[in-house]
Amino acid sequence: MYEPYITDFTMSIHNKILNDYIDKLGDLKDYKNLVNNIDQFPINERGNILFNLGGVLNHQLFFSILGQGELSENLKNKLIEDFGSISNFKEEFIKNANYVVGSGYTFLVLNKDNNLEIINTSNEDTPYSYGLKPIMNLDLWEHAYFLDYQNNRQEYINNFFSIVDFSKVSKIYEEVQKDL
Q1: What is the pTM of this model?
Q2: Counting CB atoms within 10 angstroms of each CB, which of 35, 47, 130, 148 has the fewest?
Q3: What is the CATH number of domain 1-180?
């Protein structure tokens, strides 16, 4: 489906991992509200819930933006406003992805001031925990790339923009703007 950049086999493994996170959350289904209401759970359960919740939210976003499609004018203009150019945005995103040590993600997020930012998170930490609205992300856990790229994570990062459906990213951006 996304070959040659990500093989179907890697995606099948990736989907199994997502399903494991969903299974571990059990009856907890209102994912986006759950992160904002974590204080309703005993403190000794919160870490496990947040880890699995992040695994669901982060993977669902990553899977939802894969494909082929063009930027909307609205998101294109915002990227130019906040990063100077589309090329600068992509360079900055790739640069930030290279800063991730170990497992984590690089995100494009909308902050409370309606500005786009690129952030990194560790493990399954989600931007929702910080009041940020994720627009797109790159999964940098080894399971996302190792079967296809082995230890050449840089090639995986560089190829990311070949499989981003910017029409889907644009739609997410439009939806997130309504929530501000």
Answers
A1: 0.95
A2: 47
A3: 3.55.40.20
Asked whether 107 and 136 are in contact (CB, 8 A), the reply is yes
Res. 122: pLDDT tops 80: yes
Among all chains, which residue has been given the structure tokens 């947040």?
50
- For 132, the 3-state DSSP assignment is coil
Please give the full DSSP string across 17-38, using - where no structure is assigned: HHHHHHHHHTT---HHHHHHTG
Question: Which two structure tokens, joined as six digits, stand for 25?
Answer: 């959350």
Summarize the confidence of residues 68-91 as an average pLDDT: 98
If DSSP codes are grouped into helix, strand and coil, which group holds residue 40?
A: helix
In this predicted model, what pLDDT tens digit does every residue of 162-174 receive, in sequence order? 999 999 999 999 9
Contact yes or no for 133/109 (Cβ under 8 A): yes
Q: What does the pLDDT read at residue 94? A: 98
Closest CA to 35 of 110, 137, 133: 133
pLDDT in tens, 133-148: 999 999 999 999 999 9
Give the 3-state secondary structure of residue 142: helix
Q: Which two tokens stand for residue 129?
A: 């925990």
Residue for token pair 């560790």: 122
Distance CA 84, CA 67 (A): 25
ω into 127 cis (within 30 of 0) = no
